[in-house]
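Subject: Acyl-coenzyme A thioesterase 1-like

B.,
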Amino acid sequence: MVATVTLEPAGRCRWDEPVRIAVRGLAPGQPVTLRASLRDDKGALFRAHAGRVRATLFLPPGPGPFPGIVDISGAGGGLLEYRASLLAGKGFAVMALAYYNYEDLPKGMETLHLEYFEEAVNYLLSHPQVKGPGVGLLGISKGGDLCLSMASFLKGITATVIINGSVANVGGALHYKGETLPPVGFNPNRVKVTRDGFADVLDVLNSPLEGPDQKSFIPMERAESAFLFLVGQDDHTCKSEFYANEASKRLQAHGKEKPQIICYPGAGHYIEPPYFPMCPASLFTLVGRPVIWGGEPRAHAMAQVDAWKQLQTFFHKHLGGEKETIPGKL
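Prediction pasted inline below.
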C-alpha cells in the first residue's frame, strides 16, 4: 500500500490561513511522523512536525470604503508590514506606521511627539477608501502604550486593541500640545538572569501607581474608544495582566465602559498572527541585550489563533464592516 499526502490549499496562501494536510493509505494504528520545513526570504529555516489545522476561507472581493486601522509595532523600531497586510485581506484598510529608526525618523525614542501619530490618524480618516466616523488602533508592546496614549489624547478613535502593553508611558517622554507624559522609571538592578544567560526584565519597570511614576500613567479616562486588552499570562517582559486590570479599574472609576480583557494562560509577550513561530527570546532594544519573552509553544500557538479572531471580531463590532475576507492589495 502506497501512502499519499495531500495539501490544501495546494498553492500559495497567506500566513494566517490554516493548511490542511491529509495522509491516506496508512495501515490502522501505523505510527507516522509528518515533518514540514520552510526557508524564508532571509534564508532562515523553520521546521515543524505533527500538528493538525482546519479552517474555511472566504475570498469575496468587494468595493470600499472599509473600516480603518492604524497598526503600531513594538520597541524594535522600523516599519513592520506583515500584520497590516494580513488584516487588509480581512476587509480592513490598515496603515502600518513606523515611529522611529526608519528612514528620516529619529533613531531613538527618547522623545516622541503625538502630533506625528495624529497626522497618521487624520490621513486615514480623510482617505476615500476608509469609512468613518472613527478608526481603530492596534498596538503590541510599546505600540500598545502608544495606542493607549493616542486613544486618550486624539479625536476620531473608536476601537483600540492592546496586545501585552503598558498603561504607563514607556521608554521616552511623549509630548502633545504642551502636555508631557514622562517615561515610567526603571531599576536595572531588578534584572534577573536565566540559566541560559538571558535577561528576565519583568520586574525592571517601576509601578505607575506609586510616587512620581504616577505621572507616567496614561490618562485613558479621556478616551472615547472601546478597548480590548489581549494578555499573555506568561509574558516575561511586561506585567500585561496587571496593566489590563488597572486600566479596567481606572476606566470604570471615571464612568467609562469596562474594557474587554482576554487572558491566555501559557502565552508569552509576542502574540503574533496565527502560525507565526513563537519567539522565546531575542535582543530587546530598550535594554540592549537578549531577553526572554515567555510563552509555552503549544499554548502560545493556540493563543495566536484565538487572539487573531478576537481582534477582528472586536474591530468589526466597533468599526463596522463585513465579517468576511477580501483580497488585500497595496
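Residues 51-60, 324-330 have pLDDT under 50 and may be disordered.

T.
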